[in-house]
Amino acid sequence: MNIKADLHLHSKASDGELSPTELVEFCGRKRLETVALTDHDTLAGVQEAQAAGRKLGLNVLAGIELSVTFEPGTMHMLGYFPEYPVGLEAALGQIQAARQARLPRIVELLNNLGYKLSVAEVLKLAGNSQVGRPHIARALVESGQIASFEAAFDQLLKKGRPAYVAKAKLDWPEAIALITAHGGLAVLAHPFTLDIADHEFTELLGEMRGRGLKGIETFYPQHTKAKRRLFKRLSREHGLLLTGGSDFHGPSQYNLHPGSDGIDAERLAPILAELHSQPVKLGRCANYDS
Questions:
Q1: Confidence class for position 236, pLDDT limits 50, 70, 90
Q2: Of 194, 158, 201, 200, which is closest to residue 73 (Cα–Cα)?
Q3: What is the arrangement of strands in the sheet containing 241-244, beginning at the earlier edge strand?
Q4: What are 145-189's pLDDT values in tens digits?
Q5: Average pLDDT over residues 253-280
Q6: Residue 196 has pLDDT above 50, yes or no
Q7: Domain residues of the chain, as ranges?
Q8: CATH top class, domain 94-157
Q9: Which CATH code is given to the segment(s) 5-92+168-275?
């Protein structure tokens, strides 16, 4: 597949390593034509990324990745918008506050496990970004206390590990409704992380489609060929869009780059057509074009 679009990217505005401008410039060097900035629970980097995209002639979609409550696995919901969704950032204030409150609890658990780390060290590394587990992982690696970013998650920070702390989240109907209310397309991110059987996923997808889900992130680095075939079939059966992206967070994480996964021009076209047919219900940001 000739990848022209990567619709799942992160910047320093949440837990990525590059500024929105640096990220867009990197995407340009990879000869991508359309990208989406989908930082976790924030739109803080979108306007900067879009301004950088206009300078380079690169189409940058406003996007977000919302954390969603789900058992037994993990669920995230991607949102794509035709314009900057005014009011959404304010609506997410409670989730953003919860991300900050979680940090000292994780640090305390790590200290109890024998790791020497302080909240101040993590906050310094995060800078003005929304602090998250990737910042904690990087702090552990940079202090020489663990071998790699991946090891920090696998051994300590991911769900089920000894320093994992759950955060406040929306449920999936709320996430879909929030994205839709702001004129966006709700897309289920990397569904392999749900950790449920295929028949359970099929049933769940039908429910989600009925509540306004518009697409499935099918093309994703950790999706097997079998999973991609399943998601393609289910998208046809439910009339859902196929999306894809690398989930790139930075050069040091998981050996990925923008365009490691994504979609071609043929699969991008219906997404853009659907996106721009959505009414933007809550107005336009005054400094969107600044």
A1: very high
A2: 194
A3: 5-9, 34-37, 59-68, 75-81, 185-188, 215-219, 241-244
A4: 999 999 999 999 998 999 999 877 899 999 999 999 999 999 999
A5: 89
A6: yes
A7: 5-92+168-275, 94-157
A8: mainly alpha
A9: 3.20.20.140
